[in-house]
C-alpha cells in the first residue's frame, strides 16, 4: 500500500491566505501599534510635546505606508515635529524639534514621510525649546 505524504502547510492554505500572510510579513507588522523609545520620550518631554491618540494613529498609518515601500529608518514629519522611526521595530527612536531640523541635516535615514491628519497640539511650544 503506497504511503500518503501529509500536505505541507503551504499546500493547506488557500491562495488568499498565502497572499495575506506574505503581505503581513512584508509590511513590517502593519496594524501593530508604534512604540516610543525611552530616548524619544525624553526628547518629547524636553520639548513639552505629547502625542494624542489621533496623532499616534496617523503615525501608525505613516509607518505602514513606509513599510509598504521598503523603508527601514524614516523621518516622519508631523507639523513642526520630526520623528525618526525604525520601521521594522515600529519604534520612534528619537524626536527632533523644528529648530533642530532647521540645521538642515538628518542622517541615517532612508526615507521621509509626511504624516497626514496630525494636529497642531503635538508641536505646541516645540519651536521655542532649545536644540534637541
Q: How would you portray this structure in words?
A:
The N and C termini lie far apart (74 Å). The chain has four helices and five strands; from the N terminus they run αβααβββαβ. It has one domain. 32% of the residues lie in helices and 18% in strands. Strand 3 (81-86) and strand 4 (91-96) form a beta hairpin. The protein is of the alpha/beta class and 132 residues long. It has helices at residues 15-26, 38-47, 53-68, 98-101; strands at residues 35-36, 73-78, 81-86, 91-96, 111-114. The longest helix has 16 residues, at 53-68. Residues 120-132 have low confidence and may be disordered. It has a five-stranded mixed β-sheet.
Compact overview of the structure:
This protein has helices at residues 15-26, 38-47, 53-68, 98-101, and strands at residues 35-36, 73-78, 81-86, 91-96, 111-114. With 132 residues, it is α/β, with parallel strands linked by helices. The longest helix is centred in the middle third of the chain and has 16 residues, at 53-68.
What attributes characterize this protein structure?
5-stranded mixed β-sheet; alpha/beta; 4 helices; disordered C terminus; 132 residues
Amino acid at each position: 500500500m503506497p504511503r500518503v505524504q501529509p500536505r505541507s502547510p503551504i499546500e493547506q492554505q488557500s491562495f488568499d491566505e498565502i497572499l495575506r500572510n506574505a503581505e503581513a510579513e512584508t509590511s513590517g507588522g502593519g496594524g501593530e501599534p508604534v512604540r516610543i523609545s525611552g530616548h524619544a520620550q525624553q526628547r518629547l518631554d524636553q520639548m513639552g510635546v505629547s502625542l494624542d491618540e489621533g496623532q499616534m494613529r496617523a503615525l501608525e498609518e505613516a509607518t505602514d505606508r513606509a513599510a509598504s515601500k521598503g523603508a527601514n529608518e524614516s523621518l516622519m514629519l508631523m507639523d513642526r515635529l520630526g520623528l525618526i522611526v525604525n520601521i521594522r521595530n515600529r519604534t520612534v527612536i528619537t524626536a527632533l524639534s523644528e529648530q533642530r531640523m532647521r540645521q538642515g541635516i538628518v542622517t541615517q535615514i532612508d526615507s521621509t514621510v509626511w504624516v497626514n491628519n496630525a494636529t497642531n497640539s503635538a508641536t505646541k511650544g516645540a519651536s521655542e525649546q532649545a536644540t534637541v
